[in-house]
């Protein structure tokens, strides 16, 4: 076998090996999407219950005040950005999209004269900022998929603490969350949302939902104080779970095209190997014919 | 007799849902019993055991730490961070 053929055979084998890996990763991701999505759905009843409860307190008393509802939060000009990225690679454009969205948001905030402070989830985002010498304020890496609710609570506790802190070097005026929304297994979108200060919406308008007059235990103020941090927590947990589902969907898509590309490579190199083999055979024949011609031309009769 | 429509949820799943005759929740300022026809209430929970008693007298006890409970037209919604099922023996305390 000629050298050229051997090189092509080697490339085919390597592409076949990679194809197997990509295929396996694709199937693993595909099987996890449904499960991850079901976990997102499972948080909905709790979120609904909370939203209803907060809505009822808001309609009940107009003068409820809470640091998270105050629209004039401008003590330090520091705005927190919670960025949710992947822990692993091979997820296609998943991490890049959210990082880009976060950078855009940070630039907008800087233009408004605010100072963005990064809170990063996932190794990819953390590495991005550390490499650029802008070490995030806090980062949570690596994380485990089945511990996301616990992680969400931990993150919520940390940012809530910074939001209400009196220390000017820690205090945050605002909190934004940049993550990927899971719209369907084919569509995921990086998007940023402002978490604090939150707008309660128009609770007194004509099309506002009507809530019954509630009795509050112990009182409306305490109830709001307890419910709002819980609301943030439930939102963050939901966002993390959605991001996880999106990561799987993105991985699946990326691995699907990687598998297809590996197949194209195998096809291409098989063709090249075939033509190299054919060229070798043709050359051998030419040599034999040429040799025979030379022998017959020399006039010798016996070999 | 009317019954309570109970939904017990934690941050990441629904723990218990169904009809009950009585629900006892550990509100921050003391244990609170919920019976049908109760006035709409929104309560913050402390640490303790939530007991859901169904029409046959069967008791479902879950230990909770913080959370909230809302009662509205016989619909009871309990939301907590996490709940652990208490063994039947200790639920009679």
In short:
The complex is a heterodimer of chains A (303) and B (93). Chain A is α/β, with parallel strands linked by helices and 303 residues long.
What does this 3D model show about the protein?
The complex is a heterodimer of chains A (303) and B (93). Chain A contains six helices and six strands, in the order H-H-E-H-E-H-E-H-E-E-E-H. Chain A has 303 residues and is α/β, with parallel strands linked by helices. The two termini of chain A are 29 Å apart. Helices cover 59% and strands 13% of the residues of chain A. Chain A has a five-stranded mixed beta sheet with strand order 3-2-1-4-5, with helices on both faces. Chain B is mainly beta and 93 residues long. Chain B has one domain (4-86): Sandwich (ATP Synthase, domain 1), CATH 2.60.15. Chain B is built from no helices and eight strands. Chain B has strands at 4-10, 13-20, 22-27, 30-34, 41-53, 59-72, 75-80, 83-85. Chain B is globular, with a radius of gyration of 12 Å. The model of chain B has no long low-confidence stretch (mean pLDDT 84). The chains are: A alpha/beta (303), B mainly beta (93). The interface between A and B is medium-sized, with 30 and 26 residues.
Name the CATH architecture of chain B. Answer: Sandwich
Largest sheet of chain B, if any? 8 strands, mixed
Structural class of chain A: alpha/beta
**Low-confidence parts of chain A, pLDDT < 50 over ≥5 residues?**
none
List the helices and strands and how they pair.
The complex is a heterodimer of chains A (303) and B (93).
Chain A: H1 3-42, H2 44-60, E1 78-84, H3 94-111, E2 115-121, H4 123-131, E3 138-140, H5 148-164, E4 174-182, E5 188-196, E6 215-217, H6 220-297
Parallel strand pairs in A: 1-2, 1-4, 2-3
Antiparallel strand pairs in A: 4-5
Chain B: E1 4-10, E2 13-20, E3 22-27, E4 30-34, E5 41-53, E6 59-72, E7 75-80, E8 83-85
């Amino acid at each position: 076998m000629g050298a050229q053929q051997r090189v092509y055979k080697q490339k085919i084998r390597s592409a076949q090996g990679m194809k197997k890996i990509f295929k396996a990763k694709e199937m693993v991701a595909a099987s996890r999407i449904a499960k991850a999505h079901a976990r997102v759905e499972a948080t909905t009843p709790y979120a609904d219950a909370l939203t209803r409860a907060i809505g009822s307190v808001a309609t009940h008393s107009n003068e409820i005040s809470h640091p998270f509802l105050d629209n004039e939060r401008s003590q330090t000009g520091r705005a927190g950005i919670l960025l949710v990225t992947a822990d692993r690679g091979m997820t296609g454009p998943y991490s890049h999209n959210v990082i880009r969205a976060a950078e855009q948001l940070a630039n907008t905030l800087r233009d408004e004269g605010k100072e963005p402070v990064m809170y990063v989830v996932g190794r990819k985002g953390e590495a991005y900022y550390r490499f650029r010498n802008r070490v995030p304020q806090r980062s949570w890496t690596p994380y485990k998929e089945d511990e996301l609710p616990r992680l969400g609570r931990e993150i919520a506790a940390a940012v809530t603490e910074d939001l209400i802190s009196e220390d000017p070097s820690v205090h945050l005026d605002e909190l934004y969350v940049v993550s990927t929304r899971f719209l369907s297994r084919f569509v995921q979108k990086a998007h940023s949302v402002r978490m604090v200060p939150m707008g309660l919406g128009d609770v007194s308008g004509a099309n506002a939902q009507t809530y019954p007059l509630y009795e509050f235990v112990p009182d409306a103020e305490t109830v709001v104080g307890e419910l709002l941090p819980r609301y943030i927590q439930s939102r963050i947990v939901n966002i993390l779970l959605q991001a996880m589902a999106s990561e799987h969907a993105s991985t699946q898509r990326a691995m699907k095209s990687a598998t297809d590309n590996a197949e194209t490579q195998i096809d291409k190199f098989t063709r090249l190997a075939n033509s190299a083999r054919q060229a070798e055979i043709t050359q051998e024949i030419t040599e034999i014919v040429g040799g025979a011609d030379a022998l017959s031309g020399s006039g010798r009769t016996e070999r | 007799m009317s019954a309570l429509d109970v939904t017990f949820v934690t941050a990441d799943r629904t723990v218990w849902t169904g009809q009950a005759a009585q629900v006892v929740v550990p509100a921050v300022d003391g244990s609170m019993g919920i019976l049908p026809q109760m006035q709409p209430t929104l309560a913050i929970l402390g640490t303790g055991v939530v007991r859901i008693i169904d029409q046959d007298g069967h008791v479902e006890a879950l230990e909770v730490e913080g959370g909230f409970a809302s009662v509205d037209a016989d619909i009871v919604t309990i939301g907590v961070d996490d709940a652990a099922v208490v063994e039947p023996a200790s639920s009679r305390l």
